[in-house]
Specification:
Elements (H helix, E strand, L loop, with lengths): L1 H26 L7 H14 L4 H13 L10 H4 L1 H15 L2 H7 L11
């Protein structure tokens, strides 16, 4: 039972870090966090998912630029809701490419946590 509770807590922290840090703060610059909070979220994401901030941001910004078109890297309208819900990470991996990451990943940190 303890393992289940710990897993659920870790999943919720990870979801909060993706939503608050990667999406709201990095992609849209809608909120800025104290450096301690920001570093915790970045470290937590690195520890639990291995995500590189710049890559996630670039793919998500590309999604916003081309929502629900063939160029959208993770559109449920194009790929189907079940594929995106259960295979979303796969579509992020497919969509990562160097030119997009350089162009759309502007403003993201580039330090030891990201490398």
């Amino acid at each position: 039972m303890t393992t289940i509770i710990a897993t659920l807590v870790m999943v919720q922290i990870t979801i909060a870090c993706v939503t608050l840090y990667l999406h709201r703060s990095m992609c849209h610059r809608a909120v800025t966090y104290h450096p301690v909070v920001e570093h915790f979220m970045r470290f937590w994401l690195w520890l639990t998912t291995g995500m590189i901030t710049r890559e996630w941001v670039a793919v998500h910004r590309k999604h916003h630029q081309a929502s629900d078109t063939a160029a959208d890297p993770h559109s449920p309208k194009i790929h189907g809701i079940w594929r995106i819900l259960f295979g979303g990470a796969y579509y992020y991996v497919l969509a990562k490419n160097k030119p997009d990451v350089v162009k759309l990943g502007v403003g993201c940190p580039d330090d030891w946590i990201e490398r």
